[in-house]
Amino acid sequence: MNYKWIARTALFRGCTEQDIESICRCLDFGTRSYRRGDVIALSGDTVSDIGLVLSGSVRIENNDIWGNKSILGIVESGGVFAEAYACIPNEPLMVDVIANQDCEILFVNVPKLFQPCDNSCSCHNKLIQNLVIVSARKNLHLTQRIFHTSSKTIRGRLLSYFSQQAAIQGSSKIKIPFDRQQLADYLNVDRSALSKELGKMKKEGLLNYHKNVFELNIHNQ
Amino acid sequence: MNYKWIARTALFRGCTEQDIESICRCLDFGTRSYRRGDVIALSGDTVSDIGLVLSGSVRIENNDIWGNKSILGIVESGGVFAEAYACIPNEPLMVDVIANQDCEILFVNVPKLFQPCDNSCSCHNKLIQNLVIVSARKNLHLTQRIFHTSSKTIRGRLLSYFSQQAAIQGSSKIKIPFDRQQLADYLNVDRSALSKELGKMKKEGLLNYHKNVFELNIHNQ
DNA sequence: ACAATTATGTGGTTAAAACCACAAAATAGA
DNA sequence: TCTATTTTGTGGTTTTAACCACATAATTGT
């Protein structure tokens, strides 16, 4: 395991490689690999582990009783998932976690983390403090996702999402982690209607795109 | 200040009254009162305090550049707000916090909380651990709110919200903290369209209501 | 108790997106 | 390379909710 890389993730930041190695052994954290499309966890499951994405990416989604799919977000490598459920004992998942690409996950057991361990690994408290920040950031992501779906028009939702991505990626040329169907499921709109609106916006000169790379034309208000 | 009551909030649970009294003095936590409608914090502000609602309630909302209002949630007494922003230094608020009723707020300074204090108040670590759980719960609330707005129809959104409330309140007769306009802003729909849909559902025998009290008729499928 | 203000319901119109079907393009697998 | 599969775009139709205007009901403040 690449402890040096793990030490740079938001969850383990501030821990030394030695700390991480010892805490992983001490608290018996394990890794597991998944193939693209594999189910990592299902709605209704109860979990007590945080998933740290070591490589690849996972997708958080929900299928309601009418079969409508809603994508809540993508967790890229270095990010975590299920931390909210892992921190609340016996809280059943409201979402499915799917391997968005082939990926490897490190599972961090929260109950063990919350108990002081025998060897009193030095970065225990640091880890908990990091967990607060990681959870806070996840909060902000969910809030953003709420904003992206609060416009009543498809165009408004696209502009909300694209302009945030442009800000994050520091460029008006952005690459998104979704195909059309997934983007539609993220913005909670119909795929074909989304395709039409994108075509209209391209015709109006608002943006250009090829596959999942979009270039925004800032000027054409 | 009623330390006994504070000791029962999710944030201070597990701390003794003495602990709370000493930590409030030691870390210089302060309270402030607001009148219904007062602005407690505005989008763009940076905060470093968690707001703990001692009495009354606050409303978390957002006004986008086109003037559309979106309500993210209500925080009742005992609950906290702005904790995500307070935990991430210099992160500007994306939302407004408004006094939903006359209310009193205790402000808990997070940077001070994260530094070990001179007197090493005993419940420091407990408080941080509670903060993890409180933040996790807030995550789940935001996820719920996402589900309530993911249906494409107004009826679907209402049923999603009402059935969750029925589960929480343990009854098919539920009281909601919103007037019609606020419910519309919470579900991201037009108020008059919401009113019509409610009328239609009442006519179909799905539910009954008076003001902000709704009674769901479970049977009529 | 009254006036002023705010909240709610309702009709009518319009705009928008959902929905369906299908063709074309791109991709993956053998 | 060829075929099968998946993804994307597009036309046409229908449903739905946004939007506007206004009447009525409820609430607030004096």
Give a verbal description of the structure.
2 copies of one chain form a homodimer. Chain A has 221 residues and is α+β, with helices and mostly antiparallel strands. Chain A has helices spanning 3-6, 17-26, 83-87, 110-114, 124-148, 154-169, 180-187, 191-203, and strands spanning 30-34, 39-41, 49-55, 58-63, 69-75, 80-81, 96-99, 103-109, 173-175, 207-210, 213-216. In chain A, the strands form 3 sheets. Chain A has a 4-stranded antiparallel sheet with strand order 1-8-3-6. In chain A, strands 2-7-4-5 form a 4-stranded antiparallel sheet. Chain A has a 3-stranded antiparallel sheet with strand order 9-11-10. The longest helix of chain A has 25 residues, at 124-148. The structure holds a DNA duplex (30 and 30 nucleotides).
Keywords:
alpha+beta, homodimer, 221 residues, DNA-binding, four-stranded antiparallel β-sheet
What's the gist of this structure?
Two copies of one chain form a homodimer. Chain A is built from eight helices and eleven strands.
Low-confidence segments of chain A, ≥5 residues, pLDDT <50? none
Give me the secondary-structure category of chain A. alpha+beta
In quaternary terms, these chains amount to homodimer
Please state how the strands of the largest beta sheet of chain A are arranged side by side.
1-8-3-6
Give the number of helices of chain A: 8
* Biggest chain pair interface: A-B, 41 and 41 residues
Amino- and carboxy-terminal Cα gap of chain A? 49 Å
Query: How is the main sheet of chain A built?
Result: 4 strands, antiparallel
Q: How many distinct beta strands of chain A?
A: 11
